[in-house]
Automatic annotation (TrEMBL):
<dbReference type="InterPro" id="IPR017938">
    <property type="entry name" value="Riboflavin_synthase-like_b-brl"/>
</dbReference>
<dbReference type="InterPro" id="IPR001041">
    <property type="entry name" value="2Fe-2S_ferredoxin-type"/>
</dbReference>
<dbReference type="InterPro" id="IPR006058">
    <property type="entry name" value="2Fe2S_fd_BS"/>
</dbReference>
<dbReference type="Pfam" id="PF00970">
    <property type="entry name" value="FAD_binding_6"/>
</dbReference>
<dbReference type="InterPro" id="IPR050415">
    <property type="entry name" value="MRET"/>
</dbReference>
<dbReference type="InterPro" id="IPR001433">
    <property type="entry name" value="OxRdtase_FAD/NAD-bd"/>
</dbReference>
<dbReference type="InterPro" id="IPR036010">
    <property type="entry name" value="2Fe-2S_ferredoxin-like_sf"/>
</dbReference>
<dbReference type="InterPro" id="IPR017927">
    <property type="entry name" value="FAD-bd_FR_type"/>
</dbReference>
<dbReference type="InterPro" id="IPR008333">
    <property type="entry name" value="Cbr1-like_FAD-bd_dom"/>
</dbReference>
<keyword id="KW-0285">Flavoprotein</keyword>
<dbReference type="InterPro" id="IPR012675">
    <property type="entry name" value="Beta-grasp_dom_sf"/>
</dbReference>
<dbReference type="Pfam" id="PF00111">
    <property type="entry name" value="Fer2"/>
</dbReference>
<feature type="domain" description="2Fe-2S ferredoxin-type">
    <location>
        <begin position="283"/>
        <end position="374"/>
    </location>
</feature>
<keyword id="KW-0001">2Fe-2S</keyword>
<keyword id="KW-0274">FAD</keyword>
<dbReference type="Pfam" id="PF00175">
    <property type="entry name" value="NAD_binding_1"/>
</dbReference>
<feature type="domain" description="FAD-binding FR-type">
    <location>
        <begin position="11"/>
        <end position="115"/>
    </location>
</feature>
Length: 374
C-alpha cells in the first residue's frame, strides 16, 4: 500500500535486494527485501511501521511510503504495494523491479504502533479498508505471536472477493490461532446473499458488528466482547477512518485507544472539535523546519496550525492529525496557542513549551515555533 508521501524529516536510505515479488490481486503486489547483517540494527522495526522507497519515475526520483506487512519477529521487510493506475509511480516501480534488483529503501518509521503487553489478556479489533490491511496484518501477526492470551477480531472491507489481498496469510493465521483470531470480510460491490457482509465499513456497520459479532463473551458472561475491547486499529481511506473512529468513540472506546493510519491526503479532522475562539486575522508565523527558517502569514485562526501550514505547501510532518501520534510536535518559542486535545505530550513536555501543531489554535498575532526537535 502507499501511504502519505514522505512526512518531512530527513530520511536515511540504503540499497536493499529484492528477494520476492508476487502478485496477490489484479492491483496488489507483495514484495520482500533482504536486510544484510551489517544493516540489521538500522532496519529493526515495530509492527505497524512503514518504509519509503526512492526510485526513478519519468526521469526524476520520487519517494513513496509503503507499510510493512511483516512482523518484527519474521526478520524481513515485506510490503504491500497497490497499483492505482497504469500511470502511477508504483506501477512503474513494479514493472521495473525483479528478484535480485536493488532498491533504495529507507529505515523504518511511523507511529502507528502499539505497546506490546505479552502478559495481559487483551481484546483488539482491527478495521481495514482495501490496501489498509498492510500495517494491520503486521500488527496482528505480531500480537498473535507475542501475546499468547490476546484475542483479535478483524473486519476487512473490499470491493469484492477478488480484491482481497493477503487472503492466504490471513487464512494461515486463522488455522494457526483458531481460538484467538477471527476475520470477517465485507464487500461493497458484490452480493454475497447476506446483507451483513455487503456494503462499506461505516458507522452503521460498526453498530451491526458490535451487535452481531462482538456480542457474547465466553470469557465473561456479564459483558460483551465489545465491552472488553482494549484497542482499535483502523487503516484505510480518510472518510472510512473518520466514520469508524467516531463510531467506535461513540460506542465507548476512548480516543487514546483508537489508533489509525491515513493512507491518503485527508483535509478533515478525524475527531471534530467544537469550541469557539476569538477571531484573529493576519497572524505572523516564524518557524524552523528541516533546518530552514520560514516566515508566513495565516489568514486567520479558524483552522489549526498544522492544517494551515500544509495548505500553504510546507512539508510539516504529521500522521493522525488528532493529537495522538506526536508526529507534528514542535516547540512554541513565542506567542500563544491553545492545545485542543493532547494524548501524546507529557505534562512536563507541555510545561517545557512543546505543542502539537495539529491540535493548536493560534491565540496571538505572532508566533514562533520550531519543528526541528532533534
Ligand atoms: S499529527 Fe498526530 S499528534 Fe499531530
Amino acid at each position: 500500500m502507499e501511504n502519505l508521501s514522505s512526512k518531512g524529516r530527513q530520511i536515511e536510505f540504503h540499497r536493499l535486494k529484492l528477494t520476492k515479488k508476487q502478485q496477490l490481486t489484479k492491483s496488489v503486489f507483495s514484495v520482500e527485501f533482504e536486510v544484510p547483517p551489517s544493516l540489521k540494527d538500522k532496519y529493526k522495526f515495530e509492527a505497524g511501521q512503514y518504509v519509503t522507497l526512492k526510485f526513478l519515475w519519468r526521469e526524476d526520483f520520487v519517494q513513496k511510503d509503503f507499510s510493512m506487512t511483516s512482523a518484527p519477529f519474521e526478520g524481513k521487510i515485506s510490503l504491500g504495494i497497490k497499483i492505482n493506475s497504469a500511470e502511477s509511480p508504483a506501477n512503474s516501480l513494479i514493472e521495473h523491479i525483479e528478484v535480485g534488483s536493488e532498491v533504495e529503501v529507507s529505515v523504518p518509521r511511523g507511529r502507528f504502533t502499539l505497546v506490546s503487553k505479552p502478559h495481559e489478556f487483551r481484546t483488539i479489533v482491527g478495521f481495514a479498508g482495501g490496501i489498509g490491511i498492510t500495517p494491520i496484518l503486521s500488527h496482528f501477526k505480531n500480537i498473535l505471536f507475542n501475546e499468547p492470551r490476546t484475542r483479535l477480531f478483524l473486519f476487512y472491507g473490499n470491493k469484492s472477493a477478488e480484491d482481497v489481498a493477503f487472503r492466504s496469510e490471513l487464512n494461515e493465521l486463522k488455522i494457526k490461532y483458531p481460538e484467538r483470531f477471527e476475520v470477517y470480510h465485507f464487500y461493497s460491490r458484490e452480493k454475497v446473499g447476506n446483507g451483513i457482509y455487503e456494503g462499506r465499513l461505516d458507522e452503521k456497520k460498526v453498530a451491526l458488528i458490535i451487535n452481531q459479532f462482538l456480542l457474547l463473551d465466553d470469557t465473561d458472561e456479564e459483558s460483551t466482547i465489545w465491552d472488553a475491547v482494549d484497542e482499535v486499529l483502523i487503516c484505510g481511506k480518510g472518510e472510512m477512518i473518520k466514520a469508524l473512529a467516531n463510531a467506535c468513540y461513540k460506542h465507548g472506546i476512548p480516543k487514546k485507544n483508537i489508533h489509525f493510519e491515513l493512507f491518503q491526503e485527508f483535509n478533515e479532522d478525524i475527531f471534530p472539535v467544537e469550541k469557539e475562539f476569538p477571531l484573529l486575522e493576519n497572524i505572523e508565523v516564524d518557524f524552523k523546519l528541516l533546518g530552514n527558517q520560514h516566515h508566513t502569514t495565516l489568514a486567520n485562526n479558524k483552522i489549526r496550525l498544522l492544517q494551515q501550514l500544509l495548505i500553504q505547501g510546507f512539508p510539516v510532518p504529521y500522521s493522525c492529525k488528532s493529537g495522538i501520534c506526536g508526529s507534528c510536535e514542535c516547540i512554541l518559542e513565542e506567542g500563544e496557542v491553545e492545545l485542543l486535545e493532547n494524548e501524546y505530550l507529557t505534562k512536563k513536555e507541555e510545561a517545557a513549551g512543546k505543542i502539537l501543531a495539529c491540535m493548536s489554535v493560534v491565540l496571538s498575532k505572532k508566533i514562533k515555533v520550531n519543528f526541528d526537535l532533534v
